[in-house]
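Onboarding guide, step 5: your first structure request.
Type a short instruction followed by the sequence, for example:

Predict the 3D structure of this protein.
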Amino acid sequence: MGHSGAELRQAYQALATNLQAEHAALEAVVQEMRSTLTEVKAAVEAAALELAAVYVPVLTAPVLADAEQKTGFRGYSRFDPLRAMEKERLRLQQEVAAIRLEETYVRREYLVGPNGSITRKLAEVQDHFDTWERECQRFEGLEGFLELVDVKYDTPEFQNRWWTPNYWRQWAAGDRICATLELNDFGDDVLPAYEKVRVPREQWKQQLAAVVRERDAVLALVKRHDDSVYRLQNLEQIYLEECRKAMAVHLRTADTGLLQGWGGGDRAIEVGLKKLAGCLAKVDYLTGLTKTAETEALAVSERAQQAGFKASKYGRPKKMISQYPDSSYPASGFASVQKFGAKREKYRAVAQKIHRYDHYDRFDLHNDPNLWWAEMTGRAPGRYYPGLQNWYDRNPNINIIHIDAHDDHLPSVARAVADRAHDDLGDLS
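The system replies with structure tokens like these:
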């Protein structure tokens, strides 16, 4: 029976519109997944710091040595934070003592207090400056005034000539300003009047800047003293937090299985390791899912462009009235739009499942790390995660070990692999 070019043009236009809508929806999912990934990366940082606090609860030499033994981290023995802390403590004590002997610091209240000499001087100079600033604004606030001053209008240095457009525009501005100020001539009257207020304004401006510098120097000294005192009073906590941050960096890349073995059965360490391992797995999975969705969004965009090109092709006058076989109709294209939509929702649903998972404590770290996926989602990965999918295909009968022996969340990977039959949505190529 076939289709006319006009019918094909209409069909491809509709297909292009549908694909563009799907691309927009898929881009929204990508943005949502990127936002989720950012949250999970922050959760990794938090989990690593929480675990570091378990290893380093206080800042003592035995605690640091024990933390190194249980983690393989050697930063404390190499750079000795306790020695560095005591060295800084001595420096801060000397600095605070020296500042307190400086005359400027001793007289700070008399200089920059509410009634201090510099405070009063600043108010006086500011008042004079403001007065002359208001006088200057009578001139500078007029449209075009500063431009005329800049080009030296109506003076021997004025360069513009009568045959240039700016000459007539600036002339008109000069006349308008003279009329506003009720003065006769710009060069003879306006500029001298302006100079009478500009010169003292600039003089007071320089004095104001000098007084501000004087005040700021006192305030900077006071701040330096207060900052040093605060750091001195909180030095041990500051170094403790720095030690934990250094440990957290190490923990994010360490082998959690080894760390569990070195933990000596410490329950708090085991709980922290599980949470960190789970959060790291989330980052890996969401990164892979996001990349897959980005690739698919690009493919949908390209298909929308192709459909648009074909709509244009069949819209040519000669092709509009021609007949084409049924195979020219984009039936498979419309079907692919539905498949793309289904896969998009699958990406979103899986990402949300991974994001919401928080039962880290029940996952035994003796499990292969790849089993975090099945633990979080309840099934094996589909074709949207090929590398991980291959591992599950090669290991279909591995049980997920849980801490709770009665937990029937997922007895084996075999069930997860079987469930994948409901996940795959077919080849959309």
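Each response can be followed by summary notes, for example: The beta strands are 3-4, 323-324.
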